[in-house]
Amino acid sequence: MNRRNHRLARFLFVPILLLALCRCTGEDATPETLFRDDFDTSNGQWGVGQFDKFERGYDREEYFIDLYAPDWLAWASPGLQFDDVVVEVDAYLAPESSDGHFGVLCRYVDEQNFYYFAVSPNGYYGIFLIHEGIPEVLTGQDQRMAQSSLVQTEGLSKVRAVCYQSQLSLYVNGELIETVLDDTLVRGDVGLGVGSGPEGNVRAYFDNFVVTKS
């Protein structure tokens, strides 16, 4: 190879190497899907049944949780175990529902210990830690849900929770709402949650539930 061709070869090698690196980076950046459910049919992993304070099941190829009781929280989980994950779902309240909230769970250990990421149609949100049965709001002040103009006030909302080490982040429709730090829980199940206000009567629908590696 003469000197001119040698220089040309070296010149071409650099962009080719950069292109290869970009392709590798793009592949590595693709999140690994750990669990997915579109709720078209019952797979036996989610709870179904009617109870004193709530009902949960499948309706019109969606999963629902219907709360009768006031000031109550009900949830469902598929019975899995993860540590660092991203949990995402499409959700909305039924038109006849009273004031309430809905969202996703991560690091669910048992009914006394889990994280709950919640949003409400009137623009409020919260990241909750339930530890030994005692709820604590990690966002906002005075143990109340905070308000944000980024939280959609009606219609379908895409709720996403990022649970990475001690960092807990809530996204709504692709917008970061808030990030908090808490290392109380490190591993557990994922799930869906619905909470009611003083009037009870809250029904939420869920679709396109996806869990990816964080």
Describe the structure.
The protein is mainly β and 214 residues long. The protein is 13% helix and 49% strand. The chain folds into 2 domains: 1-30; 34-213, Exo-inulinase, domain 1 (Jelly Rolls, Sandwich). The chain has one helix at residues 3-29; strands at residues 33-37, 49-50, 54-59, 62-67, 73-76, 85-93, 100-110, 113-119, 124-131, 134-137, 146-147, 157-164, 167-172, 175-181, 189-196, 202-213. A hairpin with a 4-residue loop joins strand 8 (113-119) and strand 9. The model is unreliable at 3-27 (pLDDT under 50).
CATH homologous superfamily assignment of the largest domain: Exo-inulinase, domain 1
Whole-number total of structural domains? 2
The top level CATH class name of the largest domain: Mainly Beta
Shape estimate: globular
> What can be said about the biggest beta sheet?
9 strands, antiparallel
Question: How are helices and strands ordered from N to C?
Answer: HEEEEEEEEEEEEEEEE
Secondary-structure-derived class:
mainly beta
Report the average pLDDT across residues: 88
Strand content: over 45%
CATH topology of the largest domain: Jelly Rolls
Distance between termini? 49 Å
| Unreliable sequence segments | 3-27
User: Which value, in Å, is the CA radius of gyration?
Assistant: 22 Å
List how many beta strands DSSP finds: 16
- Number of contiguous helices: 1
Helical residue percent?
10-25%
